[in-house]
Design a protein that fits this description.
Layout: E1 4-11, E2 15-17, E3 35-36, E4 44-45, H1 47-59, E5 60-66, H2 67-72, E6 86-90, E7 105-108, H3 111-122, E8 127-131, H4 134-141, E9 147-153, E10 161-162, E11 178-182, E12 185-191
Parallel strand pairs: 1-8, 1-9, 5-6, 5-8, 6-7
Antiparallel strand pairs: 2-10, 3-4, 9-12, 11-12
Pfam family, one: RibD_C
Domain Bacterial bifunctional deaminase-reductase C-terminal: 3-173
GO molecular function: 5-amino-6-(5-phosphoribosylamino)uracil reductase activity
Length: 194
């Protein structure tokens, strides 16, 4: 199976959104350079950030998100973000009424089932990305995360939605094996200690 990676952009003090569920300046780094990150050309980053981020995005076969993120983004109108092939939504509720059955979104109850479904969809050599936050914290607590990736940006929120959700136990990570400075972002990658 491919790696299971928890990922998000995060404030210096560990938040992925403010108290109003808004990202504020967290994604400013995606507009801080002159190298297009995708074919739309809307996202432009430094060459350093491109060289780190684009290969990672290209390896993602499926992304796991919670129902809250799905609802907030309006399901990305049925088109997975960042060119990802499949999105697995962890939810206790059925898919929205009138949802396009052809859209590559899969609604699953529970994080264990979601990771298993995402691994099946991603295939053996592609990454399963787990969105940070409550679902990410649950997957980490279940011992299913192999790697933690953070794009740390220079902002302090003080409060809001935590990167690791409501994890209440200690989890050890290895020393960072990647530390890359881009424009308005520090890219970090940690392996989860087993």
């Amino acid at each position: 199976m491919g790696k299971v990676v928890m990922y998000s952009t995060v404030s210096v003090d560990g938040f992925i959104a403010d108290e109003n569920d808004q990202p504020g300046p967290l994604f400013d780094w995606l507009l801080s350079g002159d190298v297009p990150l995708d074919e739309s050309g809307a996202l432009k980053v430094s060459q350093t950030s491109y060289d780190y981020t684009r290969p990672y995005w290209d390896q993602i076969g499926a992304t796991v998100v919670g129902r809250h993120v799905f609802d907030m983004t309006d399901g990305w109108e049925g088109k997975p973000p960042g060119g990802v092939d499949h999105v697995v939504v962890v939810t206790h509720r059925p898919k929205p009424e009138g949802w396009d059955p052809e859209a590559p979104f899969h609604f699953v109850d529970g994080v264990d089932a979601a990771v298993a479904k995402a691994q099946e969809l991603a295939g053996g050599d592609r990454i399963v990305e787990i969105a940070a936050g409550d679902v990410g914290g649950q997957v980490l607590a279940a011992g299913l995360i192999d790697e933690v990736r953070m794009d740390v940006v220079p902002v302090v929120f003080g409060s809001g939605k935590r990167y690791f959700g409501s994890v209440h136990a200690q989890h050890l990570l290895e020393d960072p094996d990647v530390v890359i400075q881009g424009n308005r972002v520090l890219h970090l990658r940690y392996q989860v200690r087993r």
